[in-house]
């Protein structure tokens, strides 16, 4: 009896294992993405900060005060705030160790007062390099004009410039720099996440199908209808009672759910570089393609004509030789693509005709004009 029961247990375990394997193969992980990777949550966002400041301590590579009036005025204003009056000697100021810069930073969501930010520095005057400079205290404001952070510190420049009278070597961009943890948050953005009664999931690539799949995945996890897509880019979520005053836990659970994003059939073309990017859903109806160019190549070669040896007559002259070659593209053939061909079949068919990337751009546009290309073409 015990042996028979053991066989049943082993058989049941085997069936359960096979069921788990089957479920795993039904939804391949590589075809799905986490919600946090394809969408954002309403209210959880960064804020851009910008400021105007002065960099000092440059080794003769700063702004020319004769050409950069804003740098001169900023220097005078800074000295006056420190109790030094130089208004009477403003025309005599001639220092090339100072530069006017723009300071930028990104304020992460829920940043608290006293936390640190990385700041970027970019010269806006005639400065040649910011190497060795120090940024003075610079207030940084948001879109509303309020000061949210203050930046100061020594600059880290990723490039350099060196040279002499005959040659100059420049590596990277010496007029841009960065200060790690150079900004301090002075003002917080009030936002009470846990008090929210509903929330929106905002898709980074709006799509009706993807929005519905996200709503279905959330409802399946919660066991109730709490999420509804309101448009292709937004899914509204009503906070369930068990997550009341604990929205962070809800977002933590939701952002880990996996869905398969859908995408429209699109062909992106960059004519400047000859780059073509096609989605897997691109389809083409039955169409015949012929590609050929008339190429005329003219080569001019100069040859030297000399008289015979020991000849008493004749002179050495230069004679032009012209070689004209005409290629009518007779090797190119007419290719036929069947209806509903996939992306790979399309590429293989065009490659078999010897079509290069730039000619392929023209062919794709012609196919779209004929109505055979079932995709959207976007030219960058």
UniProtKB/TrEMBL annotation:
GO terms of molecular function: structural molecule activity
InterPro entries noted in UniProt: Flag_FlgI
One Pfam entry name: FlgI
A GO CC term assigned to this protein in UniProt: bacterial-type flagellum basal body, distal rod, P ring
Biological process according to GO: bacterial-type flagellum-dependent cell motility
This protein's UniProt keywords: Bacterial flagellum, Cell projection, Cilium, Flagellum, Periplasm, Signal
Leader peptide range in chain numbering: 1-31
Complexes and interactors: The basal body constitutes a major portion of the flagellar organelle and consists of four rings (L,P,S, and M) mounted on a central rod.
UniProt-listed HAMAP family: FlgI
Protein name from the UniProt record: Flagellar P-ring protein
């Amino acid at each position: 009896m015990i042996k028979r029961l053991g066989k049943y247990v082993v058989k049941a375990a085997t069936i359960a294992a096979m069921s788990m394997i089957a479920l795993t193969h039904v939804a391949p992980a590589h075809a799905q993405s986490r919600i946090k990777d394809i969408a954002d949550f309403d209210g959880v966002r960064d804020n851009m900060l910008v400021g105007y400041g002065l960099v000092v301590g440059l080794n003769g590579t700063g702004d020319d005060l004769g050409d950069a009036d804003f740098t001169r005025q900023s220097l005078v204003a800074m000295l006056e705030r420190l109790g030094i009056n130089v208004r009477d000697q403003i025309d005599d100021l001639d220092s090339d160790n100072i530069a006017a810069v723009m300071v930028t930073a990104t304020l992460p969501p829920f940043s608290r007062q006293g936390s640190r930010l990385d700041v970027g520095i970019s010269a806006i005057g005639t400065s040649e390099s910011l190497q060795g400079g120090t940024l003075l205290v610079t207030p940084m404001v948001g879109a509303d004009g309020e000061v949210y952070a203050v930046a100061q510190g020594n600059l880290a420049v990723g490039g350099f410039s060196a040279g002499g009278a005959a040659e100059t070597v420049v590596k990277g961009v010496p007029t841009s720099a960065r200060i790690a943890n150079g900004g301090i948050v002075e003002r917080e953005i009030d936002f009470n996440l846990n008090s929210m009664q509903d929330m929106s999931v905002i898709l980074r690539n709006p799509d009706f199908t993807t929005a519905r799949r996200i709503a279905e995945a959330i409802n399946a996890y919660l066991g109730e209808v709490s999420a509804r897509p309101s448009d292709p880019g937004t899914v509204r979520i009503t906070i369930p009672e068990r997550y009341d005053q604990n929205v962070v836990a809800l977002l933590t659970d939701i952002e880990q759910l996996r869905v398969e994003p859908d995408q429209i059939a699109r062909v992106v073309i960059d004519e400047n570089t000859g780059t073509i990017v096609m989605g897997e859903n691109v389809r083409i109806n039955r169409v015949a393609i012929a590609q050929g160019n008339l190429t005329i190549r003219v080569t001019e070669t100069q040859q030297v004509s000399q008289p015979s040896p020991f000849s008493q007559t004749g002179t050495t002259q230069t004679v032009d030789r012209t070689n004209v070659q005409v290629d009518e593209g007779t090797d190119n053939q007419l290719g036929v693509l069947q209806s509903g061909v996939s992306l790979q079949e399309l590429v293989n068919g065009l490659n078999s005709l010897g079509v290069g990337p730039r000619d392929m751009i023209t062919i794709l546009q012609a196919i779209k004009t004929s109505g055979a290309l079932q995709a959207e073409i976007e030219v960058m």
